[in-house]
Amino acid sequence: MASRVPLLALCGALTVLTVSACGQGAAGQAQVPSTEKVVAGASVQGTLPPAVLDPCALLGPRDRSSAGLNVLGVPKEINGARACDWTVPATFGVTITVDEKNGLADLEIARKTATRTKVGDREALKVADKKAADGTCAVLLGMGDKASVQIDVSNTNFTDTPLACERAVTVAGLAEPKLP
To answer: What is the pTM of this model?
Structure first.
């Protein structure tokens, strides 16, 4: 019986070490934080009201890879709305803003720059000033009458507006299934 105590203690210590290492990166690598936000037991993949949407959680690791984003998003606020910004140095940037107060009809947009479209089954607007050719484009997704999600893309060199729109449409397609 006395010989079993050290063996049990050794097994317990190994179990603690094994469990505490769960979720750690490989030796020498930092752990990558989860981008899925859980609120009251529901994840962003479910249907949450706009007030609990985390814009940074709308693009998971696979989504970021598909969109060409090799950086993590940085939370920020734009005019009182929650936003997340991804900037790929010397290439392009994406900002996703969750606007809880303005639906598509409430947004002030120059009509000549907006094109009605759909992303998934959701009403959307693609906004780009082709005459300015400034390498920027936005896709605005409606979330009912009084909320929207805005995906803004800017190419670092401020050229190639069609490429900026392609990127914005890609990101909108990745984020749209996670919206309420």
So the answer is: 0.71
User: What is residue 49's predicted lDDT score, i.e. its pLDDT?
Assistant: 52
Measuring CA to CA, how many Å separate 144 from each of 55, 77, 102, 159, 172? 17, 22, 9, 33, 16
Instruction: Measure the CA–CA gap between 85 and 69, rounded to whole angstroms.
Output: 11
- Alpha carbons 104 and 114: distance in angstroms, whole number: 11
Domain CATH number, residue 61? 3.40.1000
> Could you tell me if residue 14 is inside a domain?
no
Task: Report in angstroms the alpha-carbon separations of 148 from 51, 52, 59.
Answer: 11, 13, 16
Q: Which amino acid is at 33?
A: P
Range(s) of the domain holding residue 152: 33-178
| Number of separate domains in the chain | 1
The single residue listed with the structure tokens 């037991």 is 41
CB neighbour list of residue 147: distance below 8 Å, 6 or more residues apart: 50, 98, 99, 100, 101, 102, 103
Report how far residue 114's alpha carbon sits from residue 110's, in angstroms, rounded to the nearest whole number. Answer: 7
DSSP state of 23: T
Q: 109 falls in which pLDDT band (50, 70, 90)?
A: confident
The pLDDT of residue 118 is above 90: yes
